[in-house]
Amino acid sequence: MSGHSKWATIKHKKAAIDKVRGKTFAKLARLLEVAAREGGGDVSTNASLRTVVAKAKAASMTNDAIDRAIKRGMGETDGKAYESVTYEAYAPGGVAMLIDILTDNRNRTAADVRIIFSKQGGSMAAPGSVGWQFSRKGVILVPKSASEEELMTIGLDHGLEDISEEEELWHVTCDPSQVYELKSALESAKISVSSATSTMLSANTVTINDPDEAKAILKIMNELDDNDDVQDVYANFDISESLMQEVG
Asked: Residue 97 belongs to a domain with what CATH number?
């Protein structure tokens, strides 16, 4: 399995750590603020906000925390003004990456991201040179206590496009507009869902066999994920399970 799908599994394991979960909530709060500011605070008329609220609830963010973030976005309470930016870059081995940013200081964030790549032998890319490789998909991770047949039976009526294996999990891709509908359908059928999100997947993958390149790529992904301004990172690397274990 490649790129974001493998990273989604790694992040799923990281999310079990409380301090990482707290960082996830802070990032979701930013997304909620921006969505409410740009389209209003009513989820029935603001599709972007509706998607982020579903994502926040899937991450177990409380209703009170969601409401506070929406109110900040609506200007009902004090909050910062965040700007949305997408950076494009290349990691070692020619791996393409998209980095979604929400920041209150674009110059600071640009410098931080550039340093992360330069330290590991990567580089920033010109706008448009990476983005064309990616398309938006819904990604759901499901424990293998459910069978592939069960997932297919339920999922085909709710936008399911593909199922593959990712360690102890099923990796389900679907229409991005139906990811939370599919999640609800699975849970209604008593099938546990580990995570559900709308993300960007690349049709082109870069196979990484060099341990140093693999280590540098994972270091970049970790450092970006730990940056408060980085909302998400999409990449097209393919690293084997044995190499993943070798580089830790």
From this structure: 3.30.70.980
